[in-house]
Amino acid sequence: MKVKDLIRILDAEILCGEDFLEQEITDFGASDLLSDILAYSKDEYVLLTGLTSSQVVRTAELTGAIAIVFVRGKLPPQEAIGLAKSHHIPLLKTDNLMFISCKKIVKELIKEEKNK
Prior knowledge:
Elements: H1 3-9, E1 13-16, E2 27-30, H2 34-40, E3 45-49, H3 54-63, E4 65-70, H4 78-86, E5 91-93, H5 98-114
Parallel strand pairs: 2-3, 3-4, 4-5
Antiparallel strand pairs: 1-5
Helix pairs in contact: 2-3, 3-4
């Protein structure tokens, strides 16, 4: 699955990083706690969160995230968007709850696995 696929799956809006949507996703992480995100640390994963501060972008970059999806219709401040742009991290926004977003992603991953 690529980052661009999340736009369709989650009915998401691109906030920045249009040039980096072709990246292949190897994993997902979902949390509203920075300490949990820091403990996760994987390569090429997508972070789903309701946190919108610049610290989320810094934490995502430190832990190997290739994109961030803001759930519950949350919008990050311009400072966070600028930081994501400078680190080439696409930001997406969905109105879905975190649980619903995760459920939709898992459903899509199962469908992809069956089609292999």
